[in-house]
Amino acid sequence: MNPKEEKVKIITEEFDENDEDTGVGSQKKTSKMARQKRKKRLPAAGPEEMVSENPHLGNQPEPLQEDSDTRPLSMTTRRGPRSLPPIPSASRTGFAEFSMRERMREKLQAARSKAESTLLQEIPTPRPRRLQSPGEKELETEFGAEPGEEAQKTQQEDDSQSRSRVKFRDSVRKIKTKPPVPPGFPSAEEAYNFFTFNFDPEPEESEEKPKAKNRDGTTQEEEEGEEEEPPVQGIHKTDEQLLISATEAEAFLWGLDHAAADFVAVRPADYESAHVRLQMEKELLFVPSRLTVPTYKKLPENVQPRYLEDEGLYIGTRPDVPRTCQNIMENRLLTQEPGRRWFGDDGRIVALPNPIKPFPSRPPVLTQEQDFRAELETLYKKAVKYVHRSQHMIGSGDSPGNFQLDIDISGLIFTHHPCFSREHVLAAKLAQLYDQYLARHQRNKAKFLTDKLQALRNAVQTGLNPAKTHKSLDTTQKTINEYKSEIRQTRKLRDAEQEKDRMLLKTIIKVWKEMKSLREFQRFTNTPLKLVLRKEKVDQKADEEAYEAEIQAEISELLEEHMEEHEQKMEAYRAAYQQWKAWKKAQRAKKKKKKQAVEEHPEEEMGEPYPEEDLVKPVPPEPTDRALMEHQVRERAARSRRRPGEPLLVPELSLAGSVTPNEQCPRVEVLRREDVKRRSIYLKVIFNDKEVSRTDSRPLGADFRVHFGQIFNLQIFNWPESLTLQVYETVGHSGTTLLAEVFLPIPETTIVTGRAPIEEVEFSSNQHVTLDHEGVGSGMPFSFEADGSNQLILMTSGKVSNSVAWAIGENGIPLIPPLSQQNIGFRSALKRADAISSIGTSGLTDLKKLAKWAAESKLDPNDPNNAPLMQLISVATSGESYVPDFFRLEQLQQEFNFVSDEELNRSKRFRLLCLRSQEVPEFRNYKQIPAYDREIMEKVFQDYEKRLRDRNVIETKDHIDPHRAMVAKYLQQVRESVINRFLIAKHHFLLSDLIVEEEVPNISSEGSGILGLSLFKLAEQKRPLRPRRKGRKKVTAQNLSDGDIKVLVNIIRAYDIPVRKPTASKFQQPSRSSRTFSEKHAASPTTHSPTHSADYPLGQVLVRPFVEVSFQRTICHTTTAEGPNPSWNEELELPFRAPNGDYSTSSLQSVKDDVFINIFDEVLYDVLEDDRERGSGIHTRIERHWLGCVKIPFSTIYFQAKIDGTFKIDIPPVLLGYSKERSMIIERGFDSVRSLSEGSYITLFITMEPQLVPGESVREKFDSQEDEKLLQATEKFQAECALKFPHRQCLTTVTDISGKTVFITRYLKPLNPPQELLEACPNNPQATAELVARYVSLIPFLPDTVSFAGICDLWSTSDQFLDLLAGDEEEHAVLLCNYFLSLGKKAWLVMGSAIPEGPTAYVLTREQSHYLIWNPCSGHFYGQFDTFCPLKSVGCLIGPDNIWFNIQRHDSPLRINFDVTKPKLWKSFFSRNLLYPGLSSVQPEELIYQRTDKAAAAELQDRIEKILKEKIMDWRPRHLTRWNRYCTSALRHFLPLLERSRGEDVEDDHRGELLKQLGDYRFSGFPLHMPYSELKPLIEAVYSTGVHNIDVPNVEFALAVYIHPYPKNVLSVWIYVASLIRNR
Amino acid sequence: MAAAGPSVFLLMVNGQVESAQFPEYDDLYCKYCFVYGQDWAPTAGLEEGISQITSKSQDVRQALVWNFPIDVTFKSTNPYGWPQIVLSVYGPDVFGNDVVRGYGAVHLPFSPGRHKRTIPMFVPESTSKLQKFTSWFMGRRPEYTDPKVVAQGEGREVTRVRSQGFVTLLFNVVTKDMRKLGYDTGPSDTQGVSGPSPPPGLPL
């Protein structure tokens, strides 16, 4: 019975059992079920019929038979392996059975298809079924069943077995997949449950169904088959049934009721406690542990883990798997049976190397949906000729095949071959020995050495002969000694050689004898080899004599040697003996002292106290025994030398012997010979691992030589990397074997065809061959002896004679690739000098470094990826190749140079481009560099070249004073270096430079910081009803051009303008025409009356001032106002031009131009000659008289953005024709406060339109030598201060001129002012102080921002400042403060802001009761409560030992208290928390002042005067400029006076004097006072006064210059300019 | 003069900012400007432009189509500093604030012909999570001080950016006298719009 049937029976068995188990009740159940079934069948008849009817028809008779059949069998097979699926096989069941099954299957099929159809129906038509009548339903299901039937029909045609297979497999699978199957087999009950529970979740139905089925078809077999399929069907059916025929069901149920009560046991739902379930789960489930598995578990017992990596094998990196996952996996594997095979030798899970590449190798592709058509489009691509990789290619430009390698293979000789017979082996040996002999004979070393020995002996002989010595004795001795030692050496060598010769000869003879005996033994000859020993007769007598002489000579030499040795030994002996004697004496002395009677044991006595010094009496060396020596010599000679009289033996090997013919040989030998004949040999020529050609196959000769004699011409294209010959052997027709590979060297380039020698290259193979004939085989032990001892193992080996050479072309040129290309070749390059270029172009250059790097980076030497690198390194470090010790960057650069360097440098365009990219100032903004050299003008470079040339040449033309020139040069250099530094810094970007980002709202900071507040702002109205003023939009200077920027000057008003002096009153005879226009109008007709001075103040206009603003030579002026306190309220607009059109920040910062605000008095002169015309016409001339000026640097405007305030007008000390007294008298009445200060004031508002963003200060963090703690403290201090008063200046550290951060107090230190100044007024400290301040103010002012573009305040020390003679406020203030400190004043540096400078430094001094504020740049001082003090706010005070930050509510000096001792008002840097550490000063110990050269000053003075005069004449191109020499000299005398009195209180005297001298001139003029730095500011100042603008025809000018030299080359310059008009 | 040999060459570019792919955003407009070296000068056409606001198309492509024309002519003596077009895209965020949605730049194609370029767009990232939140909340995202920064390499190392989307540009390039001055830019290797455009964003 086949397994399938078995299976069937098993299942039926189960059912039978079930029935029996359930007992009698089942019978009733079946009846009940039958009823139900029938009921059921009514509504859904169609399908049901198909299922149920068929079995009724056909299966009825069967069951009994079947039962009886199966039962006994099933009993036996019951416990068989159930889990195995039934193996379907072609069963040979009986027909009856078959038909029965067939029917049943059909039924089953029908049921299945029905279920499917119902399902199918349900899905696409979600119609509510409940509404359907049963009839309709029936129809529908029938229709639905039809396709199923059809399918069934087709299937019927199939092999029936396959269907049954399906069926039963299904059933079995179900059994298998039943979830809680215990490992055993299912019990009957479980099987029952399985079947019942599987159909239907409803317990009642499921209970009933099988019973019904049982009843239906009594054969269990059918039931079983059917039961698998209908569950779905059943459910549907029951559902529908219940719904459709509710009334029927009711009646039906009534009938069932008690039956149900009888048969259905109502039980509570099964419940297993969690504990039990856990127990059960534990049995079933396995949770692998996460713990690490100890290694021993993973490995077989007693096996230590092996770490292959440690053993040097390469293991790739394993894929990264978390440790816990690995542990789980390992634990899981361990529980499985063959788990261990998953573990490697190292106890880890076997894993392949990580296949994931660290970076994607596929180029990123952007998917574009719209481009789908593009992919289908055909692209035209031009055909490209395939180019070989040039690295291995030779002469890529030349036609390929230009190079040729000739390989000549002449033949092959085997030195051993498996087919060798024993005789052959011996013959080969003999041949080898004979070759050796021949070689030795050719060299004949013994003879050479003998000759040498002879020569040496002769030399010694002659050297010893004193008659011939013409050298000094010791040198001769020395040479003789050298000779002797050489003789010794040579003799030894000769002996050895002779011995070898003799040994070789002996061996040859021995082998020959062996061979002969072998031939005799085997009674045939295989080899034609024959050794003939030729004897050469010698003259015995002469020979003997020579022999004897030789021995004698040797003996004598040896004797000599020994004598020498003996001498030495004797010497040593004597010394030792002396020592011993002394010791002995001492011993004896001791002995005597002790007087011991132990005489029987003197040794002991001796030995015991001195065990360490075991001196034995030295033995004198024995003299050499001549006889013994002679014996030795003779013995040696006998051994190594031919005995005298013995004939010379010359072996000659010839092939003259006859080989025994085959028929006389034994069978084995014949076999061997035949075997040899069957063999043939050929060679393959392998070039660069490719076979290029092969020789003809030649039979192996009986002498194991193969002659080829073939020449191969290789037309090569690639650089030869390897050249190999492969030796192949063919045995008969069976096949070829590769015997060996012969590697041929690539020939040197010098070797060309014809000159190449034939070389023999040996080869050998490790092939093992055993032959069944006389052949000795290969790699197999064999022996010549009969007893098998003395075994030999020989390997197949041989020699190939060949020659390799470069071919020669037709015209005699060798066809060798050029050398430069060889270097590019890979392997060859390694062998050659330049190993670098071989690695490739990328520039792995220094091999040593490379090796070092490889060692450092711990490259895995076994990783195949690193193999080439490792090889390279090993080659490089082993020293086999020459490693250049130079470093070559871009070794291929030469190749890319399309033009030589000189030519490149000559190119003007290239130069221009270079200079521009270096940001050289002249070329930084060069636009549109021409395309051709010829279009570039030579003069483009002229300025630049001139500057370069001038860098070291001090140009005195502009500066006049050589010292200034030097300083200017120095300053220029400092500036350049600083600029370079900033240029670099400019290329460093911060995030804030690139990205505009909202600040993180900071809760702690005041104002807008709080997050809540800013959120609150969101709710603000977008357009508030009362808008607040917003700041102007700032423009970054990038897209600006000329004319975009304007400087707006709003001139509001002025105070205390000097008024004209009532000149008329002073003149005795006033000129009529000198009356001013206004005067005339205002005055009564009685102008000339002496009383008019009395009513002068009443109605007369004293002055008619207007303001003229000049900037960059553009001039604007206001209208004319009247009176000394005019109010203009006018806005002037001046265009701004940046230098070179460069509106970058750095360029704007370095604009040095000033805005001059000049105040003029407009004077009208009546030019009428005749009073009579007065009635009919007015002829007046307007003249303007300069009254004063205010100068504001553009940089100040740029950084301040706006300047708003009242400024003191710089009025010359002497203003002829004007005075202030008058006005003071007038003003005093109503404005007492203002009149307190002297001078005139003007209120201005200056700004720029649009507002430019001032450059940021350089953020470069400078290194510092300050203590780190101190630096941290400064940062903290500054942060704290900034938190409280963000707008107050707080300075703790500054940058010195070398770019280092320095703590600020280090700058303050008492420094001595020039002695000269101190001596000026020794009794008046106030006057001294003023003088010192004046001295400081005379040092020219130069803002740092101008000299050092980019705002970077560099602080120079006072000595540097004095040397440079230029600096800005800080330097002035520091110097002044230091002077004051040395004068014994209490002085501080005030950091604050002033107008117009902005942030600046002033000096504060404390006088007895009050404080004085000094402006260090002007030398003026102000009281604390002076309203016109330019200092507007005070940020901090700096003393020599502390810093105080202003924490008062106000910062105006008027409203603050300067008492720094009050901690509530001033926050000090050093306090109790941080004590002043006593910082040393950066200032020098004292300042050294040189007296200024008076003569030089005088010379300068003359030159300035001359230049200014020329300038004035230049400015008046249309008029004649006359110089009044008289006046000039008068002025010149007056200027020193002014200097002495510092411009005060001299006016009246001066005026009087002038009037006296120049009575008939109308005179207007003023002295200008300036510190001297350069000529240009002087010229500008003179120009701005507008003196030259007078175009009265008869005007005359006077100009005087006076320079007063102060120490240290500080020059005070006075320029007196005046214009004179002669009164008529 | 002109016959003797030109001293400048001309580069005439017209085309359009075709469309964009910004998967998350809508209602965007874009600005463009050019960045070029010192040897370059525009001779005709507009150097800057702001496009209309466009909405996403309703189909699957969800493209933002501007078709905003570009027309500019440069003259130069030196290919160094070849002009780049810098694009910046803006649009409203959830609160209605106008925020930047992307910056991008690409060199103008140097070979004559028709070229299509798809350039990736990116925006600078906030420096911290908190700032990211506040900037999102306040509608003031980090922006470049000057969009032209994206056409330069200098200073970019201090910024971190995030990619946003793509903008497709179409250029029709005509050059004059390039060859006469010795610059052979060669003909375009494919005629017309090439099939798969070169890897986008690759400066050419």
Please provide the count of β strands of chain A: 40
Which range best describes the helical content of chain B: under 10%, 10-25%, 25-40%, 40-55%, 55-70% or over 70%?
under 10%
Major beta sheet, strand line-up of chain B: 3-5-1-10-8
Strand content of chain B: 35-45%
Number of strands of chain B: 10
Oligomer state of the chains in this structure: heterodimer
Number of helices of chain B: 1
Q: Enumerate the strands of the largest sheet of chain A in spatial order, edge to edge or round the barrel.
A: 33-32-31-30-34-35-36
Q: What does the average pLDDT of chain B come to? A: 85
The shape of chain A, in one word, is elongated
- The computed structural class of chain B is mainly beta
Overall outline of chain B: globular
Write the element-wise H/E pattern of chain B from the N-terminal end onward: EEEEEEEEHEE
The profile of the biggest β sheet of chain B is:
5 strands, antiparallel
Beta-strand fraction estimate of chain A = 15-25%
Secondary structure: elements and pairs:
The complex is a heterodimer of chains A (1624) and B (204).
Chain A: H1 3-22, H2 25-41, H3 45-58, H4 62-77, H5 95-122, H6 134-157, H7 160-177, H8 188-199, H9 203-216, H10 220-228, H11 231-244, H12 246-263, H13 274-284, H14 295-298, H15 323-335, H16 372-376, E1 403-416, H17 422-443, H18 445-464, H19 473-522, E2 530-536, H20 540-594, H21 602-607, H22 626-640, E3 648-654, H23 667-678, E4 679-687, E5 690-694, E6 698-699, E7 705-716, E8 723-731, E9 735-744, E10 759-764, E11 781-782, E12 792-793, E13 797-806, H24 819-824, H25 826-831, H26 836-839, H27 847-856, H28 867-878, H29 893-896, H30 901-906, H31 908-917, H32 942-950, H33 962-986, H34 991-994, E14 995-996, H35 1011-1018, E15 1034-1035, E16 1046-1055, E17 1059-1060, H36 1063-1066, H37 1077-1082, H38 1096-1099, E18 1105-1111, E19 1114-1117, E20 1127-1135, H39 1145-1149, E21 1154-1166, E22 1180-1193, H40 1194-1200, E23 1202-1208, E24 1218-1219, H41 1221-1228, H42 1232-1235, E25 1241-1249, E26 1251-1252, H43 1268-1284, E27 1293-1296, E28 1301-1303, H44 1315-1320, H45 1325-1337, H46 1344-1347, E29 1354-1355, H47 1358-1364, H48 1369-1382, E30 1386-1394, E31 1398-1406, E32 1411-1414, ...
Parallel strand pairs in A: 15-26, 27-29, 37-39
Antiparallel strand pairs in A: 1-7, 1-13, 2-3, 4-5, 4-6, 4-8, 8-9, 10-13, 11-12, 16-20, 16-25, 17-24, 18-19, 18-21, 21-22, 23-25, 27-28, 30-31, 30-34, 31-32, 32-33, 34-35, 35-36, 38-40, 39-40
Chain B: E1 9-21, E2 29-35, E3 40-45, E4 48-50, E5 64-76, E6 84-92, E7 98-107, E8 113-124, H1 129-138, E9 143-144, E10 161-176
Antiparallel strand pairs in B: 1-5, 1-10, 2-4, 2-6, 3-5, 6-7, 8-10
